[in-house]
Amino acid sequence: MSGFPPRPYSSHMRQPSLATSASSTGQSPALVARVNEKKAELENLRELRDLSSAMASQMEALEQKLATLSGGTEAIALVLANWHNVLRAINMASAKLPKPSAEEMASDDTPLPLPQTLVRIPTEHAPIMQAHADGLAAEEERE
Fold first, then answer.
1. Which segments show compositional bias classed as Polar residues (predicted)?
2. In total, how many domains does the chain have?
């Protein structure tokens, strides 16, 4: 023969009712069960994909919020770093105040003196403003 081992004939004839039901429906119960199992697995995979997509979008939103928070934290750090200078300036302004006498402290009708109003003058544009003022002064001298 051709080199293949001979088939036992008893396996074909063992379940004639199964062969007839499989030929009438076209599928065996094991195959139907496997198809249903694969359909359930596919549905689970689709749900996993949808949940993963939702989680990815939430993570991107969280990333944007953390970037905003990081920028705000840097701004707060700069403000807090300047507080030392602000307190030092207030201390310097308060040091120039005359000390009230004991009589002034005892009387309730006289208010305590306050330090001079402190004004912040931006200095980042000072060189440009100085150059502009020098140019105007030079023009006035020529006239």
1. 12-28
2. 1
Task: Answer whether residue 10 is part of any domain.
Answer: no
- Domain membership of residue 122 (yes or no) is no
> Digits of tens for pLDDT over the chain (143 positions)?
455 555 555 444 444 444 444 444 567 999 999 999 999 999 999 999 999 999 999 999 999 999 888 888 888 888 888 888 888 887 887 777 667 677 766 776 667 666 666 666 667 777 777 787 788 778 877 76
According to the model, what pLDDT value does residue 20 have? 44
126 domain residue, yes or no: no
One-letter amino acid for residue 32 of the chain:
V
Cα separation, 47 vs 76, in Å, equals 43
Would you say residue 12 lies in a domain? no
Q: Which domain holds residue 98?
A: 26-107
